[in-house]
Recover the amino acids of this structure.
């Protein structure tokens, strides 16, 4: 069984437990039970890649800003620069994805 975004329920539960703040800007989610202010994100923009390494929760602002950009492109954007978002401030799961994408 999966949620309306096609994320299996077991993975949704795991990600909700792991991602208590935005994985990009570290902003806390206001209401964890309803994930108010949070949205589902594919770190690597591939909707077929539904894994614990690629599915995360981030704030709606970061999600809208990142859009279809690669993580590397997005980190160079004015949005990230203005908010102090760098590879060093990302959550561990996103830093791992950045390292993996650099190795490809």
């Amino acid at each position: 069984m999966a949620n309306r975004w096609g994320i299996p329920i077991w993975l949704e539960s795991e990600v909700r437990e792991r991602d208590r703040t935005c994985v990009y800007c570290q902003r806390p989610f206001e209401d964890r039970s309803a994930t108010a202010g949070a949205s589902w994100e594919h770190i690597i923009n591939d909707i077929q890649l539904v894994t614990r390494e690629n599915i995360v929760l981030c704030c709606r602002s970061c999600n809208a800003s990142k859009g279809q950009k690669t993580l590397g492109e997005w980190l160079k954007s004015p949005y990230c620069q203005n908010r102090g978002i760098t590879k060093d401030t990302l959550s561990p799961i996103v830093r791992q994805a950045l390292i993996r994408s650099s190795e490809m």
Remarks:
- The beta strands are 38-42, 55-59.
- The mean pLDDT is 89.
